[in-house]
Fold:
Amino acid sequence: MGFRFRKSVRILPGVRLNFSKSGTSVSIGTRGLRYTVGTKGTRTTVGLPGTGISWTEHRPYKASKHILHKPTASQPIPHRVTTEQKIESASAETINALSISELAPILAAIQKRPRFTPAVVAICSLILLVALALNTSTLPSISLLFAIISIFISALLDRYRRSIKVEYTVEGTAQIISKTLAETFLDIRSCKATWAIATIASTSDWKRNAGASKLNEREAIYLQFGKPTCLRGDISLPTIKTAKQEIYFLPDALLLRTQGSVAALTYQELSFENARVNFIEEKTTPPDAVILGNTWRFINKDGSPDRRFNGNRQIPICQYGQMSFRSANGLNCIVQYSRHAAAERFAKAINILQRPSSRIEAKSITSAKTPKAWPGNLFLICFSIVSLFLFVLLMQESSLNIEDESARRITPSSSPSRTNHTSKMGIPGENQGRSTISPPTRSQATPKLTTEPPEVRKKTLAECLTISDLDARTDCFEEVHANFPRQ
Structure:
């Protein structure tokens, strides 16, 4: 048991001066309610005298000395981190520019080709909007069908134009290496957990990080077999896919897909390292991991737990495997896996491919054919012709709508009234001398059913006799009399 010393002296009613090993403090209050100010912080105590029930809250002056929550290893404390390094690769253009792989210039050339899809989407959207604005029955459906077909074909052509066809003829030593590379990759894939390291940070706050001097920010990944979109053909490659990049292992080259572009580099340019690392696992421990021992979440220099922290618990120390892929032209990727012995055979295969002589023996790519230009040119010609044809139809429909609107505006709304007929006939002695009414010609008197609207067609005596209403029949007779040619 350690030595304790505490002495309390009453200065004023309700005020006490306390002495202890840790320093001097002042308490204000009475039994059941007391507030203490010390060298390390303040303490508030509230309780019911005689019951043993109380509540105490301690607030330190510096939050970095007493942390009640549990910081995770994947999220380092910012003010305790001294250096931070992000694990990410350079752009594909930079890697291809410095690469000695034969695939690098081919991939760089095809990735500079423009895409058809954005322009096709813009033109089809414009045509569809104009067709909807004209409010016709068939043009919107035709425009929508044209847009769907054009966008689908342009997307397929973009993938074809921006890819190469790779064919393999693997024989001899190259065949053994290619088969071994795929089989040993399955060993790593069988691990219960794999991670990609995103950030590595150094910290001086080892006491609050279970004695660790480095903190890793990582993400769970899944190893698989696949191929990038820039390759065509029946091939399946070992693939490491992370959130920001993808690595594909060919028998004689590495393909890196990052930021939507693909780069190629040879194994001789690769700096590969496979090692075992000790990791303080705060999350769920994989069942196939090797546990070396345990440590405390908050630890002292001698390895004992720090009693000042609440909820201090033991954390397992696991031994994982770690592969590092780096190159001088920009590749940077670190992968951890739970079973440290899983990548030993895979590492040996990579080391064989890194030898200078293996570049000739493992020459497996017999042809890398670039896409032909005529499918894209044919699509552009057909798309331009159909788009122009639809624009002409839309312009004709728009002009017809304008003519119909103009015809509706100049059409009279009703037939002339009785007073108008009287004024047209003229009253003797009043209208004579003011205006001269010329008799209508034969062409003017003949009704034009094809050019004039039905409202302005001139009536005949036979039509007037069929009207039953007396007033309407009188108006009809007056209209016929007004239109009758005068001698």
User: Anything to note?
Assistant: The mean pLDDT is 77. The chain has twelve helices and 21 strands. Residues 418-428+438-483 form one domain. The first helix runs from residue 92 to 98.
